[in-house]
Amino acid sequence: MAPTILVVDDDPKWLRVVSLYLRAREYQVETALSGEEAIRKVSEAPPDVVIADIGMPGMDGYDLCRLLRQDPKTRTLPFIFLTARDDDADKVKARKIGSDDYLTKPCPLERLTQSVETVLDRLELARQIPLDRVGLSGRLEDVNLLDMIQMLELDQNTGALVLSHGERTGTLYFKNGVIVQADIRSPKREEPLFILLGWKTGRFLFLPNVAPERMPITASMANLLFQDLRVLEEHEQATLRGGMAGKPSSCEEPVPSPLGQVQIRLEDVAGRLRARQPTALPQIVRILVVGVAHSGKSELIKHLLKDLSQSRWVAVGVEEAWERYKTEVGRVRISRDTALHLIAIRSEKRFWPLWEQCLPGALGVLLLVNPASRTALDHAKAFLKARDTLAPGLPVQALLPAHAPPVELPGLQAADLSVGLLDDPVLRQQTLDRLLQQWLSANQPA
What we know:
alpha/beta, Rossmann fold, five-stranded parallel sheet, 16 strands, 40% helix
């Protein structure tokens, strides 16, 4: 049965436009011209998603969202604001009262569909792994940490998720499902949230109603991850600027192809970025490694780091820890003032907010796809569709497992697909080389 969407807006013309668009995409649509009418319809027949304006006479969108969040029967009902208000204060307020997304009119209706698909995907996942089945404690090997965090967000839990991984510990504090503080420590230093999400082994414990002494931040997990990424890049820039990034290895000439081609193209990329946007800051080149959970993202990053460390560059900040901790960020020095970051990103549709943060600033995408899995294939197609909206023209190279059946991926040609094993160095290096070649072709010097 198709999901039901309740659209709430006091503008009949806009209400009709949105309703017709969603019905054409096979959703069942109900409408309401006020917050009071919406509450009545929700009590009679709860929808799967609510889309509401903010500025309405009587009960506005904020009050509607707040009332739904206060009722145990509707507190997990996905809620999307679609409003003409584009003020940051409104966006922060919407997040605080529990909205799942905030879109500004006139919003591309394709973006609205993406938002609906994202919240429905998250809801379906939460139904599959409710907290009482996962338990309040256990082993990280038995759960997917990202999925558990999103489940805590969706169920609007308040408390502390305590994690341990060797000598490292981390605590994520939730308030009504929103991460309000992240405290991650190791014997050496504090570490970003991105590192914690790479932990595959260890223990977890959720303590309900535990709060930190102070709550300095209120942001979605996607925003926190992106903030950590920016902090990591700023640290990288400071390291390069200070001349502490290490010296190139003794291999001064490009090694035989295909790694030699990767070396040449990476240096060309760095040069063109410098020429296009001259800056005193060191350059960070970002390539995303995208796939569903357990698709091999971390393994691919690990292999690529080893490949590139055999070239004239050295891997920065990862050699000592990599074998023990499968981090989700790999860093490679390209030159004395440029570094390459390989960043693992999930391709499930519920990670749209993170795509929105990371895609526009990326150089390209290595997409891991398993055509034998219908679910994984659907997520890959949704990601490629989002790429067209968020970063049109961003180069993508897809890697498919050996003996994969023929598949068509939107926006990709046969030359954009590679089939084989991730532990094949020739396959990896040729795929990376083609990605760099795509970017260089699209960014020719003026």
